[in-house]
Model the fold of this input.
Amino acid sequence: MKFQAVIFDMDGVLIDSEPFWKQAGIDVFDQIGIAVSQQEMQALTGMPAAGIIKTVYQRYQQMPVPVEEMVKRMNDCAISMILENKPLMPNVPETLEKLTALGCKLAVASASPRYLLEQITERCGIARYFQYLSSATELDYNKPHPQVYLHAAHQLEIDPQACLGIEDSVLGMTAVKAASMHCAVIPARMERNDPRWSLADYKLEQLTQIPKLFA
Done:
């Protein structure tokens, strides 16, 4: 078999949650008097909540609320919207079913907290497909560091070089490649021509193309 495991990013790959994270950032900053634009939040895609908050505080030279408290507010706001909407990406169950039928081990490697990973996979009916959920919030480093992907591979007992990582952000792609894994990216339509995607092994348009990489 070409790959023994496929490790998925969650936000923007399995669930269309990026709009909710962006809106949560705009909302929580607005509540403390910092007007962050949609464009600014777009530029921070793939960055964990703490990184977003520190970047915005630095840019506006303000820190009215401690970073840890803002992380909690942003997580709570986004998670509430995500769980309410259950925005599963198209063709997720079918793709996971095909990969499972190919004898492939599956995991998630995400910057999101574990309770969100567990609740989303449960509520969207896809929890049974994953052997492990790797959350960078429980580790020393977040993406673009490879630790969250290496941890997932270790838990699956698969050599990183036999793993395929699926990402939608440049930060995430960097983490996958730093973990010595093969990488497939599924960029948002507006970002598809970014030359940085050349670092990836495969550039796909949709999830249904992943099982075809095993041919």
